[in-house]
Amino acid sequence: MLHLYHSNRLEQLTDLLADTLRQPLADPLATETIVVQHPGMGRWLSLQLARRLSVCANVTFPLPAGFIWQLLRQLLDDVPEVDGFKPELMQWWLFERLAQSLPTEGFEPLHRYLESDDELSRFQLAGEIANCFDQYLVYRPDWITRWQQGRSAMPDDHWQAALWRDLVASQSAEHWVDLQQRLARMVEHGSIDPQRLPERISLFALNALSPGYLEILQLAGRWLDIHLFILNPTEGYWMDLVSEEERGRRALESTDQGLYLEVGNPLLASMGGQGSDFLASLLNYDPGATEAFIEPSGESLLHRLQRDILHAAEMDEWPDDAPVHGEDRSLQFHLCHSPMREVEVLHDQLLALLADDETLQPSDILVMTPDMDSYAPYIEAVFGESVGRTHIPYTLSDRSQIAETPVVSLFMQLLAQPGGRYPVDEIFALLEQPILHRRFGLTAADLPRIRQWLETVVIRWGRDGSERAALGLPLCGQNSWQQGLDRLLLGYALPGDDEQLFQDLLPCDAVEGSDAQLLAGLYSFVTALFELEPLLREDASPADWVVRLNSLIDRFFEPDEAESRLVQLLRSSVARLAETAALAGYSGMLSRDLLIAQLQDQLAAPSGGRFLGGGVSFCALTPMRALPFRVICMIGMNDGSFPRERRPVGFDLMAGNRRQGDRSRRADDRYLFLETLISARDLLYFSYVARDIRDNTPLPPSVLVSELMDYLDDRYGTDQPGSLSQELSVCHPLQPFNPRYFVPDTGLFSFDTANCQGAKALLAPTGQPGRFIRQPLGEPEEQWRQVELTQLIRFYDNPVRYLLSARLGITIAYEQAGMESRDPFELDYFQRSDLFQRLVQRALQGGDPAQQLSVERARGILPHGTHGEVHFERLAERARQWADQLQPLYPAETRVISVDFHHQALRLVGRLEQVSADGLLGYSLEKIPDRQLLALWIRHLVLNVAAPEGVAPTTRWLGGEGLVTLHPVVDAEARLGELLDLYWQGLQWPLPLFARSARAYANALAEDKPRETGLKRARDRWFGGYQGYAEYDNPYYRLAFPDGEVLDERFEAVSEQVFLPLLLAMEVS
Predict the structure, then answer these.
(1) Range list of H helices, 814-951
(2) pLDDT of residue 1001
């Protein structure tokens, strides 16, 4: 018989279940069956029973559908192990049927859905129809019966009824409605064998069952004990309560009936519809009921709220309770600017709770969110971070397998490659995955070198020229993988001159010596990737796809111990897809696109394996998972996020014909919220994004949170100004380092030491930030007194960077730009400059720059087609003009001059190359930059100091501004000595020499302008503005001079000392 147990607490229901289980079964080896509606509930219940019974063994926790099918198999003969009418099996049959010829009359809506004639769309349509049929089986068995009798059940059901009859005719087994009817007939004729049934069955904390399932339970209850343990939010009869909105709607539909409907407790009426329908269905079977309601004994706001729900307190029955005390924090609302801020605030709030209550453990805390995949990265970033934060142990469950495991995502990306463009950035991203590059003998340390190769040979996209032609582009292999790899291989085999073509290929000798193993690994990977094309592009049967995909896994993956489980998950998913198709009797072929869609659906399912794995439990807001915890937090309760709503498809016949007991996602979420309200024992916490992070405009919370706030404001008073919901709400600042978190009497706090340091920095006196180096460093060791010429030039390129990197070992990593995967449409500054240098050099050697076109095109830097030729010709013409100007100046012979210059205790050594009898000569396409000009000045001074007889102490540079000439310097030794002195000072203290700003200042002095004018020009260069980029944006300058206010007297003196002699010696013509 049926035994019904009611309680408003799961703990009390668990006690009653444990008492039931203490009564031993007649067969000591028999399995105890406890039906639950979610695997998470089964895990929680097994732990609770083990605590109460010392052990929980030989107990199964099936879900309702699986349990009902198993019960039918025990009672009836010829019932298959697997239900052939599962939605995923019906989908395959319908997919095949929809590809066949369909009748015209009555099938017009279906023909419109099939107009696209797309295989993937057809499979998705089959899935939607299968889901509808599954719902009809569970909630509309009378329709199924009428259809099978050849009758109509609803208007416009012709094509669905016909498809259903075809489906039933194709199956040898019965669906569960047929089995239910067969069971009813056997019960009526007394032909049931009770010995085939278990002795006892328990159903725990279900909040919904279809009428058909209940009927089967009622029939089985004639021979076995069925115990139903129901979480009931209220102790009274509340099945006839309706919300104010529902009462108003019904009043509009009829003259006076709606006026007599009872509202009762607003929260119960608004959120409890699904639970009241289920309880009403149960009461139709008149089971014996045991009530075990527990009244919350505390006086906190949370307990008062739970008492209201327990007693279904109506508005006109509310007693004049004492107002809520301002220190009552049992209900909290936290308003933030972003999901990241929600999680940061949550971390601090949990730390405070754990610090204030020594009895509270992390395992007593449950955190739920409607969108786990969106919030999981923030949870891992905050709760997994150890720097500056106190660690709170936690477990994260319910992430989709694709989001949770990079291996799964990598597998799906490999499947999608054939037929694609093979862009270099995406392919290199694949190679960065450890499980993949290990398979090809590579390590993470090898990847920067490989990236450099790919950028050097300018690979952008495309396997080869034929693939580009297949896309309607000209047959051209430039910037393709084939061309780039061939250049690397040829350069390794034929190192040397990079100006000579070999069968239209330009060798690239970037690969040296032991790098051959890296190149072999790269080549093997790319080759394997291209070999996927024939393997995956052709359609195949599901069984053949299993073989192909296992081959892909073997070819590309070399898992470590931790990744082996994930690889096995992939293999299992692939095998399960084929098994499902085989069970459905599908014998057709599958395209790769359809296969990918199927695998994505399978792997998008939450894993759920780590639920209640220890520490704070993070999980998704899933119906039937309202478990009791001392602290329950609901984050991400944003408008539109919860309750969720699934829009029915246009042909869903149930959508406009609701019956009692029907389920909907929105009703499920509403009831879950109500169950959560009664499941928190000490504290209930809500957070949501309440402000737009861009413009700070207010954003509303979930409608359920709003309803709760309205209820609190209407029901309870407060001893503080304003409404109760305002008193319970905390509005958090945009940044976690806001000083309000670290000063008293703000109502805010934080445990994060790093954010505290940031707040202190914000509160520091403005205009006086501490310098990074506050006092001079000690003098360097003796070996620093000997300076290489290249070292001195590198110092003056950026003296601050040189000090920080050379003496303190501080290197600021610049963010690496992403790899370019688009064809070149123009040359960047460095490419244009390098090409110009090559073209001028060729012209000076007597060649024609135009003949360099084929070499430069093979180098891969030129735009494709005519545009590239025009671009090249313009540059070549300019190079010829440049060469004509340089030719008279260009030396027939050059020599190398050794330098050994002593200045006090410092010694400058090195070599000056490319020196002719006329001095130094150089050229560039653009104007010479200020830092390069300074390097040229240093080399010019060295020339003046070290030039032997017969060498003119003159430097000339042909650039964008014209011919720059540096004339002989009479006091060159003194000027070079000054630069060495400043170098020695710059090794102990940041030297305020900034090339752009210093030259602007010195230019003004050279023009006899006032110093104020020079400083203004320098500030324009230093801080930027309409003049261009700010020189101060250099990260080394910002680190050394936090306030940027460094253009002082020292800057003036150094700029004048370095640049003024240079400018006086320089002539531009």
Answers:
(1) 829-844, 853-859, 865-886, 930-946
(2) 93
